[in-house]
Amino acid sequence: MELKKLEVPTTSITEVKRSPMEVFEQAKQEGTAVYVFNREKVAGVMLTQNQYETLLKELDELREKPSATASVQKVEEESFVDAGLEELYQKLQKSLMTESSISAKVLDEKMVSHGFITRKTGFGGVTDMIDELKRTEKIGYQLRQKPEGKNVIAEIVGKQDKTEHLLDHVVIEKIYLKAV
User: Fold this and answer.
1) Percent of the chain, pLDDT > 70?
2) Interhelix angle for 125-136 vs 104-113, to 10°?
3) Which of 71, 73, 136, 139 is nearest to 103 (CA)?
4) Which family does it belong to (predicted)?
5) Cα–Cα distance between 117 and 110 in angstroms, integer?
6) Which tens digit of pLDDT belongs to each residue from 29-80?
7) Domains (ranges, CATH) in the chain?
8) Rounded to whole angstroms, how far apart are CA atoms 180 and 173?
9) pTM (predicted TM-score)
10) Distance between CA atoms of 134 and 167, rounded to whole angstroms?
């Protein structure tokens, strides 16, 4: 089995403890964040203050930028969500940030936090989620409580993010929410 090599700078937690300033210097020289490993797992990411502030500024600009497709998106939203579920839909949109990559485990945790039933049942829960996504291009969820006696189904439409180091990431494209 061939191990995938990261295309980003890396260091160990031991190096960070020994000399954190060297890691910051490495991030500055490389112009990107440095992944910090602890026992062969990513423990965190280090970046310079300037890199961090630039990321925050870009994020704020993206959030404040009026979307040219806002009215089109509103029309599309109406077809993605059944009447009476708009508030939940908005929360899911905000929480999951469509068009971004998210691990299947975190996706499941966020859906559970919004009242949906977990998909991580048994040993292979995350693997089952990714398999379903590959097969159907969506992951289905059911709301735990049944408002007005109806089942509420969420479909997370997307694809597997093959650019990530671990292949358990999902790029969310759309969210459908319906009562059945």
Assistant:
1) 80
2) 100
3) 139
4) Belongs to the phD/YefM antitoxin family.
5) 11
6) 888 889 899 988 888 899 999 888 888 888 888 777 655 444 444 444 445 6
7) 10-60 (3.40.1620.10), 67-179 (no CATH)
8) 22
9) 0.53
10) 12
